[in-house]
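Q: Given only this backbone (396 positions), what sequence would you predict?
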């Protein structure tokens, strides 16, 4: 008997230690969960993640998070094979579409022709045009942007073009139109960028600017069929919670919920748990990444984990016998590491169902994130094009 409903929650950027190829990314020594645990010095309270086996996934347990004896579910890790360490790479690979060719990055800023086209379309001047921390850039240039109406265009170590503007100066819908146009410029072949991101902010001055939940990602459309497409074509419900819809440009989904925050996202998960549906719910909780990882804030990161863990308890209590829950991440973003970019890390993999036949098993370290999608497809009687299913280890 297969599971009627499969829920996957991606804890955006919650890495589980440097990946085997971390040296290629300058990320040797990165360990998001390990460093957050060390920062809390034994006071990181994650009882629900602990009982599912979070520390069981590690050679050295997370400080303050006990190894479960036995674990309520099954546990393991996943390694990424995609060329990058961005959310798009991670999520696409989970759904059987790894990004094997590196996308364009811009350590020296975007080319003049692209900036000129953007300025002409928007009727606004572009400022900054270089890699920058998202919070630092609005602190340093936000007041100028408010005074002039210019566009703050910046990037990071990932394949992203980000445009920031104050909501009172450039209305959100206008910012979206500009980003939609920018998306048309970077779909290849000369320049191929993974995501164009609208970054609206509010506040009276540089010491009080905050980015809003009106962020929107305009992603490169999937370049091949994903597990989402297969599930939808089979007549199953495919529900997006959070930025998963944007990451796949809406392809493969039948229903979508936009998140204002992690807690709003968990509200949506609870809403979907209360629905009678047959299929897959794919959730991304982005606050770990956007609010704390990039800002190198281990205190806030740990608090967000504890807040999630409390809500996870509600999910576990509400699950039906034919529900399956898979918890993982899309990359790392170690708040205890150097810089402000994502970190190339192994990600945790936790699997639980009230009716799972065998528990307290190690799922090992999967060689690709695509094993997740292969498992989901096998559950619904479908065949994966990529990845090795671990369904037999977690079936009910």
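A: Predicted residues:
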């Amino acid at each position: 008997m297969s599971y009627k409903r499969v829920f996957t929650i991606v804890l955006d950027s919650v890495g589980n230690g440097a990946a085997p190829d971390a040296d290629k990314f300058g990320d040797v020594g990165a360990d998001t969960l390990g460093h957050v645990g060390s920062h809390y010095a034994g006071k990181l309270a994650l009882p629900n993640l602990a009982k599912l086996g979070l520390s069981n996934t590690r050679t050295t347990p997370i400080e303050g998070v006990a190894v479960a004896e036995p674990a309520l579910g099954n546990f393991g890790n996943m390694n990424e094979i995609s060329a990058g360490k961005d959310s798009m790479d991670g999520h696409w690979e989970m759904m059987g579409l790894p990004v094997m060719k590196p996308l364009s990055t811009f350590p020296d800023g975007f080319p003049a022709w692209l900036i000129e086209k953007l300025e002409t379309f928007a009727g606004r001047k572009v400022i900054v045009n270089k890699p920058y921390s998202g919070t630092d850039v609005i602190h340093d240039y936000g007041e100028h942007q408010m005074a002039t109406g210019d566009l703050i265009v910046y990037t990071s170590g990932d394949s992203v073009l980000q445009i920031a503007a104050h909501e009172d100066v450039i209305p959100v819908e206008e910012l979206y139109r500009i980003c939609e146009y920018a998306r048309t410029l970077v779909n290849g072949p000369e320049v191929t960028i993974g995501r164009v991101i609208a970054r609206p902010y509010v506040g009276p001055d540089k010491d009080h600017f905050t980015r809003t939940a009106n962020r929107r990602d305009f992603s490169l459309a999937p370049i091949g069929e994903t597990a989402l497409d297969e599930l939808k074509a089979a007549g199953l419900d495919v529900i997006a919670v959070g930025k998963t819809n944007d990451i796949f440009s809406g392809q493969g989904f039948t229903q979508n919920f936009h998140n204002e925050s992690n807690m709003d996202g968990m509200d949506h998960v609870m809403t979907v748990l209360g629905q009678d549906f047959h299929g897959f719910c794919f959730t991304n909780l982005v606050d770990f990444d956007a609010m704390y990882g990039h800002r190198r804030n281990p205190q806030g990161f740990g608090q967000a984990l504890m807040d999630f863990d409390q809500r996870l308890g509600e999910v576990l209590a509400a699950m039906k016998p034919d529900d399956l829950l898979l918890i993982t991440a899309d990359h790392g973003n170690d708040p205890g590491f150097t810089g402000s970019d994502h970190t190339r890390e192994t990600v945790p993999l936790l699997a639980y169902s009230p009716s799972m036949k065998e528990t307290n098993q190690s799922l090992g370290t999967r060689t690709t994130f695509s094993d997740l999608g292969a498992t989901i497809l096998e559950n619904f009687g479908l065949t994966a094009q990529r990845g090795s299913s671990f369904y037999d280890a977690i079936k009910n």
